[in-house]
Amino acid sequence: MGEGQPPDLGEGFDAVAREAIEIGEQALTDLRENTVPHWILAGAAWKALQNVALHRSGSNSPSGQRYNRVYAILVYAWPQLAKVDKATRSNAIWLFDNSDNVLAWLATLSQKERDQWTHPAVIRRHYEKRHPNLLPDKTPPPWRDRNRHHRVWKGERLGERSRVDLEMMIGELVEQLADRERHILELEELLTEKDRENAQLRNDVIWEQTRRMQLEAAAAPAAAPVTVVRPDGETAEIVHAVSRQSQEIVPPESNDGRPDYGTWALLVAERIEELSTLELYWLLADNSAHLEAYEAAYPGAGAGLKNRINSRIAALEESQ
């Protein structure tokens, strides 16, 4: 036994309990979207741990120092189950105990509600709100009649409501706020994912436009003249040969698999000084889609690079 580790009380588990706990541990490990079936499996695991801890500690309820000490030792071997807070464990056990009724009720909800109500605490709150006749009779917690922090809490009337009523209202509002915060986080994650998808779609469109331009250029008549505008504003006709070397510079991929237009711009800048006037015109034509993508990614940079190519064309034409 390693230093600092609690004693092994594994002999307290029968085969069924150990299997339920192992399945619950794996369910939490694989949990990505907090789906209801995963939470039910985790609730079954916590239920099994709770039953064994009650038996080994001799406790009548899952609370108290003896119970908590035995439970902490038992759950030590399953870190995913161990690190979840007590309130979530309790709600997951409730979800497991009432899984038949809850799953049937969830099936009657809209898809939007099923997608949003995935945490056991949220499911339990909405379920009990819609089935008040199924709630057990609740007596006030014993601490409400005790002296907490040297203050006497009494149920005297405060206007139309008692202190207990107000505290219950505050607790419900806190839960609603937490529910909304979770919903906002889910929406923010959804927006981030949509932004990534839109960026990928824009890149795909650019690549398709580039391929289409290359195919059109290859299918064009060999001697068909192309009219271009010189940097000084005058027009000129360029007759393509039967074949020519493409001047397209394919952007390298970054670590995330997307085109690295920053590095691509450096490659283009190096090529500018090596090409002739005609090749520079081809450079503009063959990389037009990349220039647009570069401008979209870095506003002003694409236009600046295009101006640099045109300036080089003008300088070469003046020297001829």
Keywords:
single chain; 320 residues; mainly alpha; 2 domains; two-stranded antiparallel sheet; two-stranded antiparallel ribbon; 13 helices; 62% helix; elongated
Q: Your description of this structure?
A:
Strands 1-2 form a two-stranded antiparallel ribbon. A two-stranded antiparallel ribbon has the order 3-4. A two-stranded antiparallel ribbon has the order 5-6. The protein folds into 2 domains: 1-138, no CATH class; 222-319, no CATH class. It is mainly alpha-helical. The chain contains 13 helices and 6 strands.
Order of helices and strands: HHHHHHHHEEEEHEEHHHH
The profile of the biggest β sheet is: 2 strands, antiparallel
Q: Supply the helix-strand structural class.
A: mainly alpha
For the largest sheet, list the strands in their spatial order.
1-2
Secondary structure: number of strands: 6
Runs with pLDDT <50, length 5+? 137-155
Spatial gap, N to C terminus: 86 Å
Residue-averaged pLDDT: 76
Tally of alpha and pi helices: 13
The level of helicity is: 55-70%
Shape, principal axes of CA atoms: elongated
| Integer tally of domains | 2
Rounded to an integer in angstroms, the radius of gyration calculated over CA atoms is: 34 Å
Strand content: 5-15%
